[in-house]
Amino acid sequence: MPPLLRLLAPLAAILESLLALLYYRWRRLASALTAARCAEAGSHVYLGRGTNVTGHSHIHIRGRFVAMERNRIAAIESHGGMHFTPTLVLGDDVSMENDCHIAAANRVEIHDRVLIASRVYVSDHSHGGAAAVDLALPPNSRPLTSRGPVVIEAEVWLGEGVCVLPGVRIGRSSIIGANSVVTRDIPPRSVAVGAPARVIRTLD
After folding, report:
1. How far apart are the C-alpha atoms of 204 and 188, rounded to whole Å?
2. Measured between alpha carbons, how far is residue 42 from residues 31, 77, 119, 125, 190 in Å?
3. CATH number of domain containing 113
4. What domain range is 191 assigned to?
5. Of the listed 44, 60, 79, 127, which one is catalytic?
6. Which of 11, 91, 106, 200 would be 111's cystine partner, CB 3.0–4.6 Å?
7. Is-catalytic flag, 127?
8. Domain total of the chain
9. For the chain, what is the mean pLDDT?
10. Which of 81, 13, 93 is nearest to 45 (CA)?
11. In the predicted model, is pLDDT for residue 4 greater than 70?
């Protein structure tokens, strides 16, 4: 390495650290402003780059919440001329990695200390049903329907690529394996995998 570059290397490292700190401070400020628009704002909220929140007045953040990059968190107030009064509850110490989508047109509850890996999808609704009148329409033109709320109890771990579908309750301290599709209730302290997800083990 040329002598000049050797001299500049420590300065570049310091500058890189300062820029990282400034970026983190900016994200904290932007996150706090977003949280302040919600029905409840948590004690510590961090929303990474590209994370989008909609339907703020129906979202309750009840403690520390961290969502990394490119996440979508949506309480859906209207679609196709229909209007909804959704509730989306995020408990304390909920962590979400990248590229997740959480959507509520009815009610979604994610309780305390839940860990959500990347590319996870949680929704309490779908675009229409299987009736001929629905299938005659393009998917995005079909009315939103909900089979019931989604409840993810405390200390659940959702692995990479998990889908949690409407009307499902996942019991406390359960683990859902990567790429599983949860279509029915999962008892507490269970390990469930597959599409549809099935319990393969009960934790002691």
Report:
1. 11
2. 11, 22, 23, 26, 29
3. 2.160.10.10
4. 3-202
5. 127
6. 91
7. yes
8. 1
9. 93
10. 93
11. no
